[in-house]
Design brief:
By secondary structure, the protein is mainly beta. The protein is built from 3 helices and 15 strands.
Length: 325
Amino acid sequence: MRFAFFCLASLLGVAAALGGKGAPAYLANQNPFALVYALPKAESGFITQKGKLDAAFLYYVSNNAYSDEAPNGETMVWDGETATYTLKLRYGLFERLEVGMDVHYVQHSGGYLDSVIRNFHDLFGFPNGRQEQFDKDQIEYTVNGKNYMNGSHHGMGDLRFTAGVPLILGSENERRHLAARSVLKLPTGDPDYLLGSGGTDISAGLSYSDFELLGFMNMVVSANFGILYMGDSDVLAEMHNKTAGFGGAAVNWQALKWLELKLQMDLHSAMYDTELIQLGTSLQVVAGGTIQLPGDVFLDLGITEQLTTDATPDYGMYLMVGYQF
């Protein structure tokens, strides 16, 4: 039922993505205990052209309400809302090198989405039992009896630097694109308030965009996968894993000349050595699309929801505005 709803939502939703036609939604799991690491967000297989600057501003808010006890006695309460404000910059330094930077501002709070989610679940017949365990618009993050958040906190997150190199040479009009991408995250966010991990992370992966496979249906297929190395962490240090795998896939449909719709799934392996499913493998689905506005401006908006795992927020909404200079 939930998957069928998202298939429908992907045909009705509208969104946009920096990078233009065929680009996946620039999102990743926003579980507060995963957000502190340099989990890469999905990007396309083609890089920014030499001498061009892609700039975008992304707002992404997600909400969850869940408490659980693992078979080994570990416990977790995850009730709150997280919003991130991201300035994304990508510059074509050379024909075969894109460099970039992400500047994050993170806000943890009780939020405002609890009522929206309950009404949304009621409308489509989804269960609301988990949400109703908690008072509306409160925040509490507790793991094994240790409280990590019981009030609103906000501030600058960890700074990220990115690089992309094309592995299949060609112009933007080519039908297949493959790029190697890497992210370096510096510990500029405060780990005491889940604004960062307190360590330096690095990732390496591949991004692929295919305009040929389903081109006869006006569809673009994209995929990405790689590995993330996480440095020493001040967040749940006693159960922190050093490495995690990540990946995802998206299908974009060019419905109109100015409108591209998309359905996307993103996943990553466990970042912690624990039996708590909220800190385990994540699988998230995204429904949205792309609107091209006058003046080479792109507008991105859509929704996210967990599919089969509780390591992903119950529900999220995102909005991104981008422009190429």
